[in-house]
Write a structure and sequence with these properties.
The structure is a single chain. This protein is mostly helical and 88 residues long. It has one domain. The chain is 73% helix and 0% strand. The protein contains four helices and no strands.
């Protein structure tokens, strides 16, 4: 089940990564770094069973919110969302 969730997340990530109207190079480097770290944490939590699937899914959707905020220029909001992502 967790492997299916991880595969679904990766598929969604690859399909939405460049869905913004702006080119990928317009993403701020700090947002990109935090995005990668968050997805690494999600992948690790999923692979090791550290957290239940619903918490992993919630973290994934929080990353999507942060990504949207960052792409819209709301960087401080995005940083706050990234800082708030947990599996508890």
């Amino acid at each position: 089940m967790r492997l299916l969730l991880a595969a679904s997340i990766l598929a969604l990530l690859s399909s939405t990564c460049f869905a913004a109207d702006e080119p990928p190079s317009s993403y701020l480097p700090l947002c990109a770094e935090l995005d990668l770290a968050a997805f690494s944490d999600i992948e690790l939590a999923s692979a090791t069973g550290q957290a239940p699937a619903d918490k992993i899914a919630a973290a994934f959707f929080r990353v999507m919110e942060a990504r949207d905020a960052c792409a819209s220029g709301r960087v401080s909001e995005a940083l706050a969302i990234y800082d708030d992502i947990t599996f508890e």
